[in-house]
Amino acid sequence: MKTNALSLLVPLLTCLASLPPAEAVSPSPDGGYTGGNTAEGQDALLSLTTGRYNTAVGLDSLKSNTVGLYNTAVGAHALMNQTRARHSTAVGKDALMNSTGSGNTALGANAGLGVSTATNVICIGISGQNIDNSCFIGGIYSNVQPIVGTDPDSVTITSTGRLGRGNVFPAV
Length: 172
Fold this sequence. Notes:
Elements: H1 2-17, E1 32-33, E2 37-40, E3 55-57, E4 72-74, E5 89-91, E6 105-107, E7 121-124, E8 134-137, E9 155-157, E10 163-165
Parallel strand pairs: 2-3, 3-4, 4-5, 5-6, 6-7, 7-8
Antiparallel strand pairs: 1-2, 9-10
């Protein structure tokens, strides 16, 4: 019995030894760069010099970034003209494309296009404005239906963060 098992094991080991090494993806992605930076896409992080911990995915994402830190850009032209800011996140085509401010967040195609130098701005589905420490969310204003005798611009935020219409009274 031992000779039969051994006679099978030797050819098996010979076959396994001749196989090429396994790789997760072939060819390997070009993602991990020095300084903890990751880039995938044509001209993503093209101008990087000493910036660290940036992630750029998509055509021209973070293209102009040279020394910025901890930025994330996902989508064609996201944070494209950003050069030195920190802690900004843009997801969507052209999101925060012209912003040079720090701590900004944009979600959606063209989100944050109105933000240039402001800091700590949040834009969700809307271009926003260049005002520090502000938040712009598309699709809310046009959905607020005024109640007779109330301000249609009034929006409330509950303690759980849910947006709602201001001055809402139960139906009579």
